[in-house]
Amino acid sequence: MKSLARIQQNSQEINRMLAQINALVEVRDASPEQRRQWQAACEEFHSRYEGLCFPGGGAMLARVRSGDPAAIEAAVQFLLADPYHFRSGYLKERLWRWLANQPLSASARNRLERAALSYLDRRICREFRMMCKAMTRIGRAQFWSQVAERAVAAASDPAPAKRATLLLAYGSNVHAGAAAHHGISQPC
């Protein structure tokens, strides 16, 4: 759990640096000193982002695709922590796609199933579709029965039930899931 907290702290630091840049951009043309402060904030962000965005930095992220066990563990931890910062949605989308094609331990599968179930409790974001596709390969029978239970629990809260139904559509047929997803996202 220590690394989950660390991932969240890194995400908060990225958000803090970005907020500082956004605050300084408004006044950067007021004086040479303001411009220097803005440039320093931008330089700090660009120099630290790669190390903060993913556990182990960009080098560890590159090793996920090659099946490195330490990198796969970092990816599972990242998806379980579910941080929200600049470009994190794109990163989670790639991780779901890559992990679907990797040999995973039982522990990693359990944690990814837990991460996927947590997606049902929040609004659909950019990586939801890739998570659905990945879970068609990763998810075990117990996971799908939990999703089915969530899908029929519409009386208590219809939004998570709708997301669970969408995930089930992917689970039965990826093309049917994609069509259902398209039907949901079109009215938006």
CA gyration radius, whole angstroms? 19 Å
List the total number of helices: 10
Round the mean pLDDT to the nearest integer and report it: 91
Strand content: under 5%
Number of strands: 0
Number of domains: 1
Parts with pLDDT < 50 across at least 5 consecutive residues: none
Cα-to-Cα separation, first versus last residue: 37 Å
Description:
The relative contact order is 0.09. The radius of gyration is 19 Å and the shape is globular. It has 188 residues and is mainly α. The chain is built from ten helices and no strands.
Short recap of the structure:
The chain has 188 residues and is mostly helical. Helix content is 76%, strand content 0%.
Quick tags:
10 helices; 0% strand; mainly alpha; globular; 188 residues
Write the SSE topology.
Elements: H1 2-25, H2 32-53, H3 57-64, H4 69-81, H5 88-99, H6 106-119, H7 128-138, H8 141-152, H9 158-172, H10 174-185
Helix pairs in contact: 1-2, 1-4, 3-4, 4-5, 4-6, 5-7, 6-7, 7-9, 7-10, 8-9, 9-10
